[in-house]
Each structure stands twice: as structure tokens, then as C-alpha cells.
Amino acid sequence: MSQPDGWSEFMTKEEIRELTGKRGQALQVAVLIEERIPHKVLRGRLLVSRFHVREWLEGRTPARVGVGINLAAAARPLPAKPSR
10 with 49: CB under 8 angstroms? Predict the structure, then answer.
């Protein structure tokens, strides 16, 4: 599916400012965390996906990376039972 000219998957700085109501990146990140909107800071640039914002607006909880079974914990041996 082609996208309109100038369209990007990521919101612009101005759009993020409008979404969060905040001017500074740290304040914007705080709002995104509070609202549980997935985002990344990459090389000092705040990235917010339009897809995730649409999901949030529709009341859906966007998928989170890193949530699942901790296989490292499952591989640890169980502690020995105390003798009675």
C-alpha cells in the first residue's frame, strides 16, 4: 500500500508536542509513559509510531516489547528443600 507524499510512520516533533501538550522531550516522554504509548529515543530523537497512537486512541493497549515468559528464570535450578 503506497503512502501519500511526505507521510512517515513516525510522528513529527510538532505532532508529538500536540499529542503530549509538552514542549521538552523529557516531559513528552513522561506523558507517553503515563499513557502507555510505546516510543523510543534513538540517538536523541523521540520516535512515536502513528500506528501505536491510533491503537491508543481506539482504546487498545499497544503490544509491548519484552513482555512474556522469562526463559532465563525458568532455566535456573530450584533451591534445595530444607530437611525436616
Answer: yes
Evaluate whether 20 touches 32 at the Cβ level (below 8 Å): yes
- How far is residue 44's CA from residue 28's CA, in Å, rounded to a whole number? 13
The rounded distance, in Å, linking the Cα atoms of 76 and 56 is: 37
Question: CA 52, CA 61: separation in Å to the nearest integer?
Answer: 9
* Planar angle of CA 39, 43, 48, nearest 5 degrees: 20
| Model pLDDT for residues 50-83, shown as the tens digit of each residue | 999 999 999 987 666 555 666 666 677 777 777 7
pLDDT beyond 70 at 46: yes
Start-to-end C-alpha separation, the chain: 68
